[in-house]
Write a structure and sequence with these properties.
The protein has 603 residues and is α/β, with parallel strands linked by helices. The radius of gyration is 24 Å and the shape is globular. The chain folds into 3 domains: 212 residues, Phosphoenolpyruvate Carboxykinase, domain 1 (3-Layer(aba) Sandwich), CATH 3.40.449.10; 273 residues, Phosphoenolpyruvate Carboxykinase, domain 3 (Alpha-Beta Complex), CATH 3.90.228.20; 80 residues, Phosphoenolpyruvate Carboxykinase, domain 2 (Beta Complex). A hairpin with a 2-residue loop joins strand 30 and strand 31. The chain contains 18 helices and 31 strands. The strands form 7 sheets. Strands 1, 4, 5, 6, 7, 8, 9, 10 and 11 form a 9-stranded mixed β-sheet that branches. 30% of the residues lie in helices and 22% in strands. The structure holds guanosine-5'-triphosphate, sulfopyruvate (SPV) and manganese (II) ion (MN).
């Protein structure tokens, strides 16, 4: 068939009558082009309505893409099982396709745009034969906001469509925002043959385009999330003077009734969702402490007319880690995922409810594991995938902030960086100033987790938790961070925390989760000038008596162990930072080199 015939036979004719109002000419033309390439049997144009969601859910269940969970215990909840080769982000298959390699920088994989398009056209050609192409318009950010971004994702995965319906403002609302402009991110996605050797997640920032092939997993396939809101977003932030960050946003209300907003950058599976939804320990709740969630994964931050840094969450859902989530660690998450949620790669109990390692209830005598195999506690393997996830609307979180839907965002008083470090890094330290804080963030290291494919538990540098998500040269990114200071009056204070330091027996020194509010209390006290600190070589640290340990089963000695500075270990830490400095070479801002020299001399 010639191109013209394919268009007629496969897309235009079959679908012309079903295109709902609202899709403009630019969108229609682009969808046609992509349908010509991918050759789906049919095209479904999403409107984002409840009726559509119900019908697509029904279809997904009938095709076994979703398994209906026990609707009495878990109303509106479904289970999805991934292809076992496709359960996490694949950073080695992720590319920034800019005209020059230098603009992607040494920490990103790079492909020339023409080469990437050519190779991917080969992959996409005919990839949707026998399948439906769904046209998914979506909005990242708030309607009417100047920062909001519109995307249209074309995908052959119903799981992706239904997940995008939770994670983004999807359907008509996005089309209304778009009007007759052609300024939407062109997101093309196909699971293809789901072959790890033919998997590519390619970003074309100059073309406002993302092409993702060969994976159905969250961060690889829900293109509004990491691909648009972080990689394309950070690129735009650099051009336009704002920041797209891998950060949670939360409000902390103290017993005076004052709410202070903070953001926090922690690498994947290192505690953003848990901190953002934190439940105060009973003694602090009784005193009037309260927290509210604005976002758990992505923050867009801009400087307002008064020189204040403001943050907003462009997402509308959570795509959170399941294992370890229970009524003790994170009751708000449990509540958020109790209904209308999609569970990915958890275990299925005989009564049709979900189970996972770290669930409130003990392991069932028997169940079906995440791969669909029979499982018992003696199977010698986990029932759920360590990176199993829930997808749920933000509005179901009981701690949701009333300001989550406010397009102007919230003013940020503190920025918190943190990694998963069993050694060396203290529980909390405050940077001396913005530049020192940027250095602490830039040098952040973390032990790798199951959220990305590859070895877990090895320390790698993950600057500002953005190593996998920065859409341009990391050196230019640091320079952009440093340059923000002159426009900020005053800049937020910057802190580094580590909930994961262990003792000589490998036990966590700090209880974490809700108890982290005790550290937030000190952070707030610092922001409001209510408490002194001790000057140490690595930054300002709390006097032990200034951390509220009331009602906590850890003694001062253990707290001090969590705060200890081992100078020898720090010198080693600095030598391992060298790798990143060498990698970034001349792109590394000299201010950060200078901060490192200063720290060395203080040690
Ligand atoms: P992404 O969604 O991958 O970006 O991750 P995230 O940063 O939102 O991580 P999340 O909050 O889901 O935490 C992931 C893992 O860290 C879970 O297994 C939690 O149980 C564990 N965790 C979170 N907070 C703490 C803490 O304060 N202490 C300890 N020990 N573990 C924690
Ligand atoms: C992460 O890996 O940081 C996540 C999950 O938040 S994903 O959306 O897959 O990137
Ligand atoms: Mn994340």
């Amino acid at each position: 068939m010639k191109r013209h015939d394919i268009l007629d036979a496969r897309s235009t004719m079959k679908t012309a009558t079903t295109i709902p109002a609202g899709f403009n000419e630019h969108a229609r033309r682009w969808v046609e082009e992509c349908a010509t390439l991918c050759q789906p049997d049919s095209v479904h144009w999403c409107d984002g309505s409840n009726e559509e969601r119900a019908e697509l859910t029904r279809q997904a269940a009938s095709q076994s893409i979703l398994i209906e969970l026990n609707q009495t215990a878990m109303p509106g909840c479904y289970l999805h099982r991934s292809n076992p080769n496709d359960t996490a982000r694949t950073e080695h298959c992720t590319f920034i396709c800019t005209p020059t390699k230098a603009s992607a920088g040494p920490t990103n994989n790079w492909m020339a745009p023409a080469d990437a398009y050519q190779m991917l056209r080969g992959c996409f050609a005919g990839s949707m034969r026998g399948r439906t192409m769904y046209v998914v318009p979506f909005l990242m950010g708030h309607p009417g906001s100047p920062l909001a971004k519109i995307g249209i994702e074309l995908t052959d995965s119903l799981y992706v469509v239904l997940s995008m319906g939770i994670m983004t403002r999807m359907g008509r609302i996005a089309l209304e925002e778009l009007g007759d402009r052609d300024t939407f991110t062109r997101c093309l996605h196909s699971v293809g043959e789901c072959d790890p050797n033919r998997r590519y997640i390619c970003h074309f920032p100059q073309d406002n385009t993302i092409w993702s092939y060969g994976s159905g997993y969250g961060g690889n396939a829900l293109l509004g999330k990491k691909c648009l809101s972080l990689r394309i977003g950070s690129y735009l932030g650099h051009e336009e003077g704002w920041l797209a960050e891998h950060m949670l946003i939360m409000g902390v209300t103290d017993p005076r009734g004052q709410t202070t907003y903070v953001t926090g950058a922690f690498p994947s599976a290192c505690g953003k969702t848990n901190l953002a939804m934190l439940t105060p320990p009973p003694s602090m709740a009784a005193d009037g402490w309260k927290i509210e969630t604005l976002g758990d994964d992505i923050a867009w931050m801009y400087i307002d007319g008064h020189g204040h840094l403001r943050a907003l969450n462009p997402e509308a859902g959570y795509f959170g880690v399941v294992p370890g989530t229970n009524r003790t660690t994170n009751p708000n998450a449990i509540e958020a995922m109790a209904r209308n949620a999609i569970y990915t790669n958890v275990a299925l109990r005989p009564d049709g409810t979900a189970w996972w390692e770290g669930h409130d209830e003990p392991a069932p005598a028997q169940c079906t594991d995440w791969t669909g195999q029979p499982w018992t506690p003696n199977s010698g393997r986990k029932a759920t995938h360590p990176n199993s996830r829930f997808t749920a609307p933000v509005t179901q979180n009981p701690a949701i902030s009333p300001l989550w839907d406010d397009p102007s965002g919230v003013p940020i008083s503190a920025i918190i960086f943190g990694g998963r470090r069993s050694k060396t890094l203290p529980l909390v330290v405050e940077a001396f100033n913005w530049t020192h804080g940027a250095y602490l963030g830039a040098m952040m290291g973390s032990e790798t987790t199951a959220a990305a494919s590859g070895q877990t538990g090895v320390v790698r540098r993950d600057p500002m938790a953005m190593l996998p998500f920065c859409g341009y040269n990391m050196g230019a990114y640091f320079a952009h961070w440093l340059s923000m200071q002159k426009r900020l009056a005053p800049p937020p204070r910057i802190f580094h925390v580590n909930w994961f330091r262990t003792d000589e027996h490998g036990k966590f020194l700090w209880p974490g989760f809700g108890e982290n509010l005790r550290i937030l209390q000190w952070i707030l006290d610092r922001c409001h000038g209510r408490v002194d600190a001790v000057k140490t070589p690595i930054g300002w640290m709390p006097q032990p008596e200034d951390i509220n340990l009331d009602g906590l089963e850890i003694d001062r000695a253990r707290f001090e162990q969590a705060q200890a500075i081992d100078r020898e270990a720090w010198r080693k830490e600095l030598s391992t930072q060298e790798e990143l400095f060498v990698k970034l070479g001349g792109d590394m801002p000299k201010e950060l080199l200078f901060e490192r020299e200063l720290l060395l001399s203080r040690l």
